[in-house]
Design brief:
Blueprint (H helix, E strand, L loop, with lengths): L4 E3 L9 H7 L8 E3 L9 H4 L4 H12 L5 H11 L12 E4 L2 E5 L9 H5 L2 H11 L5 E7 L3 H10 L5 E8 L5 H8 L6 E6 L3 H12 L2 H9 L2 E4 L6 H20 L9 E6 L4 H12 L3 E8 L4 H8 L1 E3 L20 H8 L4 H14 L1 E3 L2 H5 L4 E5 L2 H15 L5 H17 L5 E5 L7 H8 L12 H8 L5 H8 L6 E3 L4 H9 L2
Helix pairs in contact: 1-6, 3-4, 3-11, 4-6, 11-12, 17-18, 17-19
Bound molecules: pyridoxal-5'-phosphate (PLP).
Amino acid sequence: MELMYQSTRSEGTKVTASQAILKGLADDGGLFVPVSIPKLDVSLEDISKMTYQETAYEVMKLFFTDFTENELKTCIERAYDSKFDTKEIAPLVKKSDAYYLELFHGATIAFKDMALSILPHLLTTSAKKNNIKNEIVILTATSGDTGKAALAGFADVEGTSIIVFYPKNGVSKIQERQMVTQKGANTKVVGITGNFDDAQSGVKAMFNNKELAKVMDEHGYQFSSANSINIGRLVPQVVYYVYSYTRLLANGDIKAGEKVNFVVPTGNFGNILAAFYAKNMGVPVGKLICASNENKVLYDFFETGVYDRNREFILTSSPSMDILISSNLERLIFRIAGDDAKKTADMMDALKTTGKYTITDEMKLKLADFTGGWASEEDTAKEIKRVFDETGYVMDTHTAVASSVYHTYKEKTNDDTKTIIASTASPYKFGTSVMSAIDKKYEGMDDFALIDELCKTSGVKIPNAVEEIRTAPVLHDTVCETKDMQKTVEKILGL
Ligand SMILES: *Cc1c(COP(=O)(O)O)cnc(C)c1O
């Protein structure tokens, strides 16, 4: 039977998975959710004997029901291949008293690769299924990480091209080099003289420009976006929760049916929502522990039932979690509102106009699966050092937020359920913060200078992604003024 998708903000018409992937966002501004979360139809014991790719198929076939077996398996094979530097794709390592699920073995050494390596294939397959002949042009504004992961995912994928705008003076040296050395005839990277907000506004304006859409269509192009609310990014993230649970089962670390906790360093709420979906599919989960940095809007939400973005925005050493509007939370709100689109729409409206909303007591009761925690900058640095001193394992700042939150949680609750911590970036990506947490003498040195030191300290081979950009030639040097973004796109596409 076909699993259909609806918007979180209105009952409206339901769409198929491929249509939801193509559209990204519903017409009413809501997010697409499956009308129900499917249950796994093979046992976890059986999955424990499967590879990552086979597990991916068992999960995705239940969500993307309008894809044929062959289509889906082709997408999976193309995504989870030698771009990853380990056959396991997402290895689980035990250190100290927790298991770290390493989600950073893909092309850009951060967890966004888990979804962005398959999204381009889901998108082109969806286009074919819906008889779309145009080339899909992915337009993205980035403050650093997403841009590179999207470039790597879409590079040389037939039927697509990708244009990334970034603030010329607003990203780190490593991030800029990662982007401007990107290979692939269908990739374009453009620096703008403005900041990230300017880049984002420019991209939004192009998406909403009907005249431009018409000219694009005449030339055989149409825009699409790769942002994190696409259901084609959420579902692939469910896979590694199922996979990691079944690895514990395979190793005999847990018995069949035994519950585990997941701790997830959270920004936009996509990663932890995928864990919630995994639980609803039948994975035995105790607590879902949502870890925030000093931008602890989610921690406060789980404590009080009030989501309030009216607060100072703090720049931290875990920048991918520096977020005050966690877009994917809307899917959870919809769920705990009893799939009530009207109620969800009202709350999102309040968020837009007043910057906050309050959930009802009844909804709050349905949040029992979750608990929130947060780590200060000092806690985060201390945790990196503690785990390094005790075990020799070097973790990145985002993972350290989660690890710190886990230990606070454990002290408070004495919960000794086996626990998996989502490890979302390689320490090489945030070398300065990581190394100065271990030894103050590294403070002020840049990420590039610290690569060899980090290698000596951690004993972890320098990832290809890092090695490559040290020597790779610059392939993109276009810079434009903010007001000329559209002109630049027109020129690139030859409109
Ligand atoms: C994006 C990101 C996160 C946050 O994930 P969400 O799905 O947005 O909650 C955490 N850590 C790293 C390294 C990231 O890139």
